[in-house]
What we know:
single chain, 219 residues, L-arginine/glycine Amidinotransferase, Chain A, three-stranded mixed β-sheet
Amino acid sequence: MMRFSRYAGNPNIGVFAVSNESVSLIAADADPLFVKDVEEALEVETHLTTVAGSFVVGSLVVMNSNGAVVSGLSEEREISDIEKLLPVFALDDALNAAGNNILANDNGALVNPDYSKKVIKAISEALGVECVPATVAGIKTVGSVCRATNKGCICHADASEDDLALIKDILKVEAQRTSVNHGSRMVGAGVLANSKGALVGDITTPIEMGKIEDGLNLY
Length: 219
């Protein structure tokens, strides 16, 4: 299922929520209608939370079916709440916005190339997948410009053929170039998805919707 939505008037819904195959973490102040959209489109259990005292949950968390990586600025209470759902690794690094800096599914992950080898190893262990430093369209914050599931990946409209090939090699899915929200290249910010469905910012055009549907294999 694909559905249009917005969070507090903002079409960049991926900034405020994150999902894997069974669970979605959503900003604690989210409107019940937004929560319902997530539950119905992705067929997940939803949990409202803050991360590092902030509502930008999608920017600060990345997760797959094996675990979650959260900002190292997160409070103990927040980590404890998320740990009731899946294992958590707190990313104690200057680049602690995990959702922006890491692109992951259950098969692999691409990470900001500015992470140290030690940090990349820790992320790999937390998510249970191979992690490879990379850029997409020359951008280091790979999570902000892509959205991957276990069935497909959509990415920045200027991604190169080499970028697409690397995504296929590491995440084991085909990638489709697109934009979202009427021309935004920040695909990760405008889409929330898993293999069962997608929630898309509500100013996304029909052409963009078609590419997102193709890229995420939502048929």
